[in-house]
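Write out the 3D structure for:
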Amino acid sequence: MKILIVGAGGTLGQAVSDELGARHDIVRAGRSRGDVRVDLRDAASIAAMFRDVDDLDAIVCTAGKVPFKPLADLDDADYLDGLQDKLMGQVRLVQAGAPCLRDGGSITLITGILTEQPIVAGACASMVNGAVEAFVRAAAIELPRGIRINAVSPNVFEESMGSYGPFFRGFEPVPVKRAALAFSRSVEGRQTGQVYKVW
């Protein structure tokens, strides 16, 4: 298969690239590095990427940022930042990318454990993850030509505890390689409208 991985340069993106790259042709996309450049906050950038990359069998997104701040400190700009990046960025990717997929292709998006297991300073992340998962379930019944869509919802990664550990006290982190397997399940399986939890 020919698979586009957006966010391939990150911790998760590299692990997913390694997992799927053992069997498939990978096109790596990122904001600052990769085979192609893309900014998920910019619809024109996404459209330009798909002019350069088409005839895909799968689109995978491992990118998306949200602010981590206490609820009392979050303002409209913070919420909009998370919505524009992790939510609308992935929605734009689906809207622009679906026509570039071959019949029976797939799209896999990224959410996270905070959808169901909230933490202090994680309100924006919980909100955005929940919205992405709702979008996946809804899009699954409308995508044409047998195109499938799923999401992967991982716990915090062992490899990220240096940065995110203070936010996730009491959580048992998972190795990023384990999360990468869920992307393989989505891409190489046949299910649609699913959220694969890696907790």
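The CA atoms of residues 38 and 48 lie 8 Å apart.
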